[in-house]
Amino acid sequence: MNEQWRIDATPVGYEEAVSFMEKKAAAIREKNEPDLVWLLEHPPLYTAGTSASPKDLLDAKFPVHQTGRGGQYTYHGPGQRVAYAMIDLQKRGQDLRAYVSDLEEWIIRALKTFGVTGERRAGRVGIWVKMQDGTDSKIAAIGVRVRKWVAYHGIAINLNPDLAHYNGIVPCGITGHGVTSLEELGIKTTMPELDAALKRAFTEVFGA
After folding, report:
1. 84 neighbors 12 (Cβ within 8 angstroms)
2. End-to-end CA gap in the chain
């Protein structure tokens, strides 16, 4: 692949990010521009995907944005690395299910860099880790939208966000499970180190 990479050092507003992604997705299709992976953080906010249920918004303590990506409610904020991938799926067999599986594998390989075993769970979106008490907690979210076979939105991995901010929603509509972060798992790392792991893992998964 000959994708471009962009990293923003300061938080990017959600509406600004969506507007950029939509324009970039159109340019990939209409002007054959290269794919782009955009690494950023958002200010604290909630997003509601196309399957979001109003009952899962428990406390709108932050702005709530309706979004066209798949999925339900999720939280974005400082300390969470969002990776928006604008990818031409026409060049990848036009297989959305395979693409989502590749996004999962991307996260799993990046987490492995830090000795964290990320796992898929049947019927549950995102990537999960087994906690010491035997319960599952979510460490990464996935949400995708596709327009004219160009995928955008992407993934979010918790480095060290304020996990209490998740209390305002039922994350992804899934009850009975927690949310965790690399910091909560005892991993002392930095955002640039996570970015480097994401770049390596992306090349491994999507480079062919």
Report:
1. no
2. 7
Q: Is 93 exposed, middle or buried (0-12, 13-18, 19+ CB in 10 A)?
A: exposed
Ordered domains of the chain (ranges, CATH): 4-206 (3.30.930.10)
CA distance 204 to 208: 8
Return d(Cα 139, Cα 74) in angstroms, integer: 12
For the question of whether the overall pTM of this predicted structure is more than 0.70, the answer is yes
Do residues 107 and 129 lie in contact, with contact meaning Cβ atoms separated by under 8 Å? no
**pLDDT tens figures, 91-131:** 999 999 999 999 999 999 999 999 999 999 998 889 999 99
Q: Summarize pLDDT for 42-66 with one digit per residue, the tens.
A: 999 999 988 889 999 999 999 999 9
User: Does residue 175 have a pLDDT over 80?
Assistant: no
Return the active site residues: 172
d(CA 5, CA 168): 32
Query: Which tokens belong to 108?
Result: 């799993």
Per-residue DSSP letter, 48? E
Task: Note whether 152 and 24 are within 8 A (CB).
Answer: yes
What b/e sequence results for 141-173 when a residue is b if at least 16 CB atoms lie within 10 Å of its CB, and e otherwise?
Answer: bbbbbbeebbbbbbbbbbbbbebebbebbbbbb
Distance CA(29)–CA(107), nearest Å, equals 26
